[in-house]
Amino acid sequence: MVSSLRIRPAKRIAGEIHAPSDKSITHRALLLGSLAESGSFIRNPLWAEDCRAMLQCLRNLGLGAELDGPGLRLSPRPLQSSDVSLDCGNSGTAMRLLAGAIASHRGVQATLIGDESLSQRPMRRVTEPLRQMGAEIAGDTAPLTLIGRQLRGIEHDLEVASAQVKSALLVAGLRADRTTVVREPCQSRDHTERLLRSIGVGIRSAEGWTEVEPGPLPGFEIDIPGDFSSAAFWIVAATLLSGSELIVHGLGTNPTRSGLLRVVNVVLESERVALGEPMGDLVIQQPAKPKPFTIEGELVPLLIDEIPILAVLATQLQGTSLFKDASELRVKESDRIAATVTFLTQMGACITATDDGMIIEGPTPLRGAVLNSGGDHRIAMSQVIAGLLAQRDSVVNDVDCIATSYPDFVKHLEKLVEY
Ligand code: S3P
Q: What angle do the packed helices 336-346 and 307-314 form, to 10 degrees?
């Protein structure tokens, strides 16, 4: 069943939560743990649909995985061909990372499939360089059928900054015959590099450049930090609802993920580093309203998933905010430029789409409205937050997709919002 949420105008955000675990890092821990030479332990993995899909695909390729207290104990076995199609569901990260792993395991054969949205997303950006490495892959959109081969290390320049593609090539490079180099037009999230480096794999990187040596992967223990992209919804709500007080414990603050902090004012406490990933407790108390902003160039990948909720923020700021260089948004789980402009226009915002972004004139009061997420989790959650800021009740339809990345979202909504 596809359900709906009725959202009332809120007074403020008040309370504390543990951030839901990071989706990107959970994906990488699952994949790298299943390719390692010995067992791994993942403490607090994200139990969301995307990561469950990744885990099921890996189980179908032979991975042993058992629940153990707050975590998952992985017992890797050599990857084996899967006679069932591996269903990545809605997850682009699962499909692209798995492509790199399967393509580089000689003799392993599998077909990657996905839901309607994932089946339309561009995969050539990953199949093409993998083919240059010698991979045998049929298809440039899902379904992708792969037959693993001994690959060659290559030097590859990505056309768009993409952590998924970079990671797929680095994973493939671990089993190539020589060094693999990946260059990006600007820095995308670097979770794969940090995890590999902290478990002793031969990887070097600088901004926009990464090089990996082939070699074995040791098992590891990892504590998954909180997901900045999930916390972003509460950060924006607390920034806009005056008198708010919010604490998010255990939040990942990796600079390649937390570009939103250049726009909003927060305090970070108890900062620490775990397996190369910085984290801390984020505190917002009586925040000042931010100034309108321009998001462009190198900043875009550092907050790519937060752009819909940043657009909600921009509608409430005095002046013009601009999003440029963000055409990648058009090939996410939905066309997020079109989806964001549609729902904010419905609510009375002054927002215009451009080819690669949006122009927003604020502030405009938001009207309550009946909204539809189109099955995109981040659009659904952005619509809920916009509903909290509106003057009348709203209804957000098709909210089951929120479980893709943030199964506890409604629980946290009930906990944090005061009416
Ligand atoms: C992700 C990288 C980003 C992001 C996606 C998750 C990852 O995509 O939008 O939600 O886990 O590597 P791109 O790598 O395509 O930019």
A: 30
For 23-223, CATH gives 3.65.10.10
- pLDDT of residue 285 exceeding 80, the answer is yes
**Catalytic: which of 281, 305, 376, 398?**
305
Task: Report the DSSP beta bridge partners of residue 351.
Answer: 360
Question: Which band of pLDDT confidence, cut at 50, 70 and 90, is reported for residue 288?
Answer: confident
Residue 396, beta-bridge partner list: 5, 371
User: pLDDT by residue (tens digit) across 208-251?
Assistant: 999 999 999 999 999 999 999 999 999 999 999 999 999 999 99
Reported confidence tier of residue 324, pLDDT bands at 50, 70, 90: very high
Determine the Cα–Cα distance for residues 284 and 269; give it in Å rounded to an integer: 11
- Tell me if the domain spanning 4-21+225-418 has CATH number 3.65.10.10: yes
Backbone angles phi, psi at 320, to 5 degrees: -100, 130
pLDDT confidence of residue 287: 86
Map out the domains of the chain as residue ranges.
4-21+225-418, 23-223
Which of 21, 22, 24, 95 for mutating ligand 1's site (highest number of atoms within 8 Å of CB)?
Answer: 24
